[in-house]
Sequence to fold (98 residues):
Amino acid sequence: MIVLNNLVCNEALLTICRAACSFSFQFLEAIKSPVQVVSHTAAQVLAAYGAVDVPRNAWPDLLAALFHNISDAAIGDVTKVASLEVPTLLLLFFSLFF
Fold:
């Protein structure tokens, strides 16, 4: 019975992890919005998730995606500014909590 309960817990955890991954990806897309409020809000959410995931190396492509947004000439200024907000907020979180 313990193995069955453990198996059920592992499947539930996997489902939660998949949902979180999808959720995070949606905010990586939302940060590309030309609407400043949407892009800024997505940056705040990404920074909050990143504050947990980056130190654990659970989201290694977050910073790469943000740097791509900053350096790509085809991406608008609103996205560039919001993408710069995320590492800035991450540094703030790290300085406050670590």
Summary: DSSP finds four helices and no strands in the chain. The two ends are 40 Å apart (CA to CA). The longest helix spans residues 2-30. Residues 1-7 have pLDDT under 50 and may be disordered.
